[in-house]
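Budget justification aside, the reviewers requested a transparent look at the raw inputs and outputs of the sequence design task funded under Objective 1. We therefore reproduce one unedited record. The lines immediately below are the structure tokens for a 409-residue chain.
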């Protein structure tokens, strides 16, 4: 048993935190009294470790191997095809492990990674990410989503591979209905994904409407299917860009359906800022879903890293603090209440989407924590510091320090 003393919560007061084995035992002023092993945090900020609820570890770090393309979603998918044919399990494993390790240093210990499942790469991406997850099980927890990136109807054979992926250990059923060629096929895609989720008793996390075309409305298909099949609280929809372009009446109707179906929305602003609005002149769209309206309706909204130096996005370093800062800009989140919402979007919101029951900074939760060398969350966002310490399952897994000198006359 050991303790943190005088650690500052994001809400303001300083507390002691007592850790017993993998879990938090007590939180409160003076809670560490009498314990011989204690770390003095001197009023620095303590947070639960971040959760990256939407990332693609299989594609990470392939950017330098790809040909240039037009910067759009379709351009990126095409450029990645050639590289995906060349993937090996060991190559995917090495790249995914690198991103997991870098992310842990930056305070993230839980991930939910989409993994391409299609007739180009087969199960190689999944096998590579599962191997990386096993390699990194001492520092992080990685769950996987079988993701039919090339479509299910557009890519005959992908459905059988999805079944094989779930049998091989993928945790969650993915999807990408808007990628199908017409509305009927989109509806079939949604139905097939829910069929798989029912048969294998898995949650769903789908790429939904990642397009500027407000006429693309698979979010409503997903919400209707979730409500019809009783999949309440078991579905996450990622990106949902076209909702911003759709008319307000549709948006209000479908947001209410998302609320009723308790669908989480992963707004991946970081990637969509560079992907969407590519055809715009003058005012360029931000490519982000209706975060304010979803939030006002009580929908669970999370921010994901999504891409790390892949065909879609040349940047990204597994920093959820960076993701939070960029997302705050994109969605105009600036008030104190807004910044609380931003913190939630990289901690409690992805944890809720993943239905993690042992998450948070509270007694009984798993001791996945990070100590930041700033007094407040707003200062963490502004200054983007490295966490001084990161704990996973109650064990110290990363430590960083930055030395900076200024020499005056
Ligand atoms: Zn994605």
């Amino acid at each position: 048993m050991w303790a943190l003393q005088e650690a500052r919560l994001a809400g303001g007061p300083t507390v002691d935190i007592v850790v017993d084995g993998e879990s938090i035992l007590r939180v409160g002023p003076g809670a560490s009294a009498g314990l011989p092993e204690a770390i003095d945090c001197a009023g620095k900020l303590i947070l639960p470790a971040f959760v990256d609820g939407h990332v693609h570890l299989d594609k990470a770090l392939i950017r330098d191997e790809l040909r240039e393309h037009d910067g759009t979603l379709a351009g990126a998918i095409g450029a990645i095809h050639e590289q995906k044919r060349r993937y090996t399990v060991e190559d995917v494993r090495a790249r995914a492990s690198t991103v997991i390790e870098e992310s842990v240093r930056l305070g993230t210990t839980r991930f939910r990674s989409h993994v391409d499942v299609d007739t180009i790469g087969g199960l190689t991406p999944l096998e590579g990410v599962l191997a990386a997850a096993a390699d990194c099980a001492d520092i992080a927890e990685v769950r996987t989503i079988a993701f039919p990136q090339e479509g299910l109807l557009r890519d005959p054979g992908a459905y059988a591979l999805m079944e094989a992926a779930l049998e091989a250990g993928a945790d969650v059923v993915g999807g990408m209905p808007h990628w199908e060629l017409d509305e009927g096929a989109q509806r079939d895609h949604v139905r097939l994904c829910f069929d798989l989720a029912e048969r294998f008793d898995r949650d769903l996390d789908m790429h939904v409407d990642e397009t500027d075309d407000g006429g693309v409305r698979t979010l409503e298909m997903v919400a209707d299917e979730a409500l019809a099949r009783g999949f309440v609280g078991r579905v996450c929809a990622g990106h949902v860009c076209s909702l911003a372009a759709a008319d307000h009446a549709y948006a209000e109707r479908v947001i209410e359906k998302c609320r009723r179906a308790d669908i989480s929305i992963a707004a991946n602003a970081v990637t969509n800022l560079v992907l969407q609005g590519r055809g715009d002149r003058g005012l360029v769209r931000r490519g982000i879903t209706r975060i304010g309206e979803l939030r006002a309706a009580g929908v669970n909204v999370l921010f994901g890293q999504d891409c790390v130096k892949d065909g879609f996005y040349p940047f990204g370093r597994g920093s959820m603090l960076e993701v939070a800062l960029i997302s705050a800009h994109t969605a105009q989140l600036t008030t104190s209440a807004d910044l609380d919402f931003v913190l939630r979007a990289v901690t409690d919101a992805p944890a809720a989407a993943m239905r993690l029951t042992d998450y948070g900074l509270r007694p009984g939760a798993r001791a996945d924590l990070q100590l930041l060398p700033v007094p407040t969350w707003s200062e963490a966002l502004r200054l983007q510091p490295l966490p001084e310490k990161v704990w996973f399952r109650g064990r110290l897994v990363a430590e960083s320090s930055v030395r900076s000198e200024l020499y005056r006359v």
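The chain has 14 helices and 16 strands. Residues 54, 56, 114, 207, 238, 268, 306 surround zinc ion (CB under 6 Å). Computational costs for records of this kind are itemized in the attached budget.
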